[in-house]
Amino acid sequence: MSDYRFEFCTEETVERLIEFIDVYWQKNHILVQSRELFDWQHKAGDGEYNFALAISNKTNEICGIQGFIPSGHFSKDLEGNNETWLAIWKVRDDIKAPGLGAAILKFIRKRYKTVCALGLNKLVLPFYATFKYQVGVLNHHVLINNECQNFSILQPGIWKKIEIYHPITGYGLVEQTIETISKLNIRSEKNVFFTKPLKDVNFLINRYLRHPIYDYKVYAISKDDLISGFLVTRHVSLKNSTIIRVIDYQGSFDHLSKLYNPLIKILKKYDAEYIDFMQFGIPVTFLQKAGFIDVFEYQDMVVPDYFEPFVNTNIVIDFAYKTKNTEPNFFICKGDGDQDRPSSIGVTS
Q1: Backbone phi, then psi, for 201, in 5-degree steps?
Q2: Per-residue pLDDT at 324
Q3: How do beta strands 216-223 and 332-333 pair?
């Protein structure tokens, strides 16, 4: 790779990077249309941008890029963990340099001990497997509103109404604002934020409550006036109907199993068809106790994932991750990386 140099994007190269995305990745991509979203997602505080570039030593042109989103991007306290999610990865089609894409990724790996990717193209899965990344797919579960008479978004297939008896557990979901969340009496930070890659309260604030376009709701899981976890959701409206998506979860998996009644209350409050949850790492028994069922276990059930534009089909989301040490409690959800981001200007949640 002596014909190329690798460097992180700076103020001097950012306009060329955006042009590269527009020309070689996708015309009028959301990161091209919205500089606000681009900066929010990729501009670091030191003047760098979270993109690695492969630049030709002969022509000085950008020949390949790899975007990334470190956990520390949303919370300074997480910077020392050296964990990052990958984003756009592209080598120009006219560049005949086998291994250039892998070289860009290797350049990023020198900085971060844990590298994760979500929403992979099927063509690159063999690459990750070859380089000994852990690979898999997100599980997809749904909690259906039993009181909904006519579904416009969900296709329930052969699903039959599931009546689950849940005694009052004392657990509740209390919606938070930026002002209230930082003042909470959290039972134990290490028992709430224990899954890897690590997150914290500042991460929830900056990643979700300060999102420049989407409107996320962050709920604190409350019991006996103490906070034992957090649930992040985003509403999607289509065809005069509403659905609710669980985008992130932090806290004991056992506490998740206690949330059936509060979740049903939210479904009824917003007259939503369902709440769905795409994740990897939570044992299925905890989800079942919370009223969720596995989308793929029900014949002809369709719980769409793409809404911008709407695609009326189930989607499988692949992931890959690699870490220098064996990491217990590895947890992936829809909000990680750049999976849950707008695809066009003018779209709000």
Answers
A1: -60, -40
A2: 77
A3: unpaired
d(CA 291, CA 284): 11
User: What tokens does 288 get?
Assistant: 């079942």
- Give the C-alpha separation, 307 to 312, whole Å: 9
pLDDT band at residue 265 using 50, 70 and 90 as cut-offs: very high
> The sheet that has 318-323: what strands, in order across it?
4-8, 51-56, 62-70, 83-91, 114-118, 318-323, 134-137
- Inform me whether the pLDDT recorded for 224 exceeds 90: no
198 contact partners, CB below 8 Å, separation of at least 6: 71, 78, 81, 83
Only one residue has tokens 């052969």, namely 158
Whether the predicted model's global pTM rises above the 0.90 cut: yes
Give dist(CA 235, CA 216) in Å, integer.
8
Contact criterion met (CB below 8 Å) for 247 and 334: yes
Cα separation, 262 vs 172, in Å, equals: 6
Q: What is the mean pLDDT of residues 289-315?
A: 94
Q: Which residue has the higher pLDDT, 281 or 149?
A: 281
Closest residue by Cα to residue 30 from 168, 303, 213, 294: 213
Is 145 or 123 the better-scoring residue by pLDDT? 145
**25 three-state secondary structure:** helix
Burial 216-225 (b: 16+ CB within 10 A, else e): bbbbbbbeee
3-class DSSP state of 72:
helix
Q: What is the pLDDT of residue 327?
A: 65
What stretch of H or E contains 137?
strand 134-137
Q: Which residues contact 217 (CB under 8 A, 6 or more apart)?
A: 175, 232, 233, 234, 235
